[in-house]
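User: Modeling request: complex.
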Amino acid sequence: MLSSNQRKLITQLSKKKYRISNKLFVVEGKKVVNELIASSWPFQNLFTTEDNFHPDAEKLSLEEMKKITHFKTPSPVLGVFILPEVQKLLVEPITIALDGVSDPGNLGTIIRLCDWFGLSELICSKTTVDCYNPKVIQASMGSITRVRCYYVEDLGVTLTALQKPIYGATAKGDSIYTAKLPKEATYIFGSESHGISAYLSNHLNGELAIPQFRKGSSMAESLNVANASAIFLSELFRSS
Amino acid sequence: MLSSNQRKLITQLSKKKYRISNKLFVVEGKKVVNELIASSWPFQNLFTTEDNFHPDAEKLSLEEMKKITHFKTPSPVLGVFILPEVQKLLVEPITIALDGVSDPGNLGTIIRLCDWFGLSELICSKTTVDCYNPKVIQASMGSITRVRCYYVEDLGVTLTALQKPIYGATAKGDSIYTAKLPKEATYIFGSESHGISAYLSNHLNGELAIPQFRKGSSMAESLNVANASAIFLSELFRSS
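Assistant: Request completed. Predicted assembly structure:
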C-alpha cells in the first residue's frame, strides 16, 4: 500500500529540482532496476506488481503502479534510488563531452554507446538534459551504472584544463575517415538544433565531420547526434 | 476554420489503418513540411498558425492546431499529404533491411542515416513500425523524401530473391572491423528486444557484430539499433 506522501514524492521526482532536493531518482523497468541493484547502487524503495521480485520490494496493485509511473505504460518494477554524490573527474585518454544535448533518448543512447566502447565518463554542459531524467535512465538500459555523467558550469574552462586537444563534431570539419583522430583528446557533440555553442567553438583545436555520401541538390542537413556519436566512437576505437 | 470532419480525419491519421484507407498521412513541423513540398510530394491540405507560410495554407488559431496535432506541443505547420503508391524495388548494391524495428524514433533516424550514406531504399518487414507514423516522419527530418521504405510480407523470400549475400547484425557475429563487408550485399538489423527473428536467421549467409570494448563482468548487452546501424553504415561506406 502506497502512502500519499510516497506517491507525491515519486511523482515529483520526474522533475530535476525535486531529484536534487530529495537526493533521489526513479528507475523503472525490471532489467534496469536489476542492473542498479547488481551494481550495489543504494535504493530507498522498490515497488513491484509481481511476486518474488526482491525481498525488500513492496507489492503494489497495477492501479497503484499506474499512479506513480513516469511513463504512459507502467513497468512491473519501479525503484527509488539514491542520487550519488558528485565525485572528481576521472579523465580517461578519450573524453566525450556534450554541449546542450536536450533529448533524453539521445543522452541515454550516448551513455549506452560510451559504455559499449569502454568509457566510464561523459562530461556534460549544464544545458544538457539531466542524466537522472527517467527517459534517460530508460534509454541508457543500465549503462548509467558504468558511465557517469559529470555536469559542469563551463565546458570551455573544464575541457581546457584537461590539457588535451579539443575537437568538435561540426558540419564543416575535416572528414573523420581521413583526419588523424588522436587517442588522447576530447571530442564534443553539440545540441540537436544548434550544434556546438559559439562560446565553446572558440575553445576547439579542430573540427571533424562525418562526410555525406549522397550527391545532389537535395540532401540531409545533419545526422542525429547519438548516431553521429556512434560513428565517431566506432572510428576512434576500431583501430585501437 | 477547421471543419469537424477535417478534425476527425486528421486525428484518425495517427493510426495506420486510417492512413491506408484514406491514402493520407500527416506531417508536422515547418522544416519537414517544406522539404516534402520542395520534393513535389502532393498534399491535400496545409494548415498553419503563421502568416505567409504558403499560398495554399489555411490559417488556424493555436487552439485549433492543438486539437489536430499528434504531438504534445503543436508545430506552427501541419500538412496532410498523399500516401504514395507502392512502387517496384530499386535494388541498390547495398541493401539495408529491418526485421521488426518497433520504435518510431529508431526507424526515423535509420531513414536519416540511409539518406546520409546515399541509400534510397530501406526494406522493412511488416512487423516494422509504419514509416508514415508521425513520430517516424518527425525523426526522419525530411529524409523520408529521399529514402523509401518498402514493406514486405516475407523478408526471407524478398531478400533471397535479390541474389546477394545476406548478413545479419547479431551479438555473436564476426567483428565488422576485421570481417570482409561486401559492397553488394544485404545487411539486416533486428528488433530492439528480440533481434533478428528465428525464421529470418535461417536465411543468413553470415553474422556480423560490433565488438564490445569494455572488459569485465558487468557490461552492456547491446547497442541501440539505430546506433548499431550508424556504425555498420559508416564501416560499409568509409572506404568506398
